[in-house]
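Data availability (excerpt). The following record was deposited with the supplementary files.
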Amino acid sequence: MKTIIFGLIGGITLVFGMWAQSQSQQEQAKAQIKKQRRDERYHSETSNTKLLKPGEKEASFVDLVDMTGYDQKAPLAERNAVADRLAAEHKQKRTEVGCQADAILFGRIGQPTGHVTTDRSYIYTSYTLTIQDIIKAPPSVTLTSGSEIELTVPGGKAKHPDGGGWIEVQDPNFNQLIPLKDHILLLKYDKETDDYYVFDPIGIYKILSDGTIVRGDAKHFELAREARLAREPDTFDAVMTDLKSLKCSKK
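Predicted structure:
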């Protein structure tokens, strides 16, 4: 009887060990595919981090808030007319990005981790997001308040691959997220690798200490001022209402 029991225990242990090994192999394969996808997503034809020495930064300046036609010296009526047009255009762009997004989430950002692509052409940054509210989620995923995901954004700061310090790349289209601050994020989702990523600069809304909101491409003071002139929503309720009321055409 003992022999049978020990045999059963041994068999169960073997099966469990094989299952655990299989699960580990699957996770490793998934992680490898995720890394390959990220390398492809963030590969750059114009940048080369091999040229950066420890402590060096590849700098750029973000200038994306479209103020075409707005002249501060024009009469008030003309300025208001242009602002009305810009507000409508920006709202349409938010609608397009919101409808393209697989997930629209509100939550708190964790600390950044910088990564250099395998070909050393660029840097991207991963963050954790602790979800507080879900406006939109991928159909195949169950997200709940309090759950945590990882997401990536182009650019950032990472350890030099050869050691000896940090290197930094400022992406011309994306600013980095603010650790330990709340954000509203419009994300794409790679189902195969369970990977979320910001795909458009309008997909970032940072909630500042005073409670106002600044779009991700309006980090700098002048751009934030332009965003206000263009009548971008700058409060949490305004942005959330805008995104919750998206009307996306079904194709």
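Summary of structural features: The helical segments are 2-42, 76-100, 221-229, 236-244.
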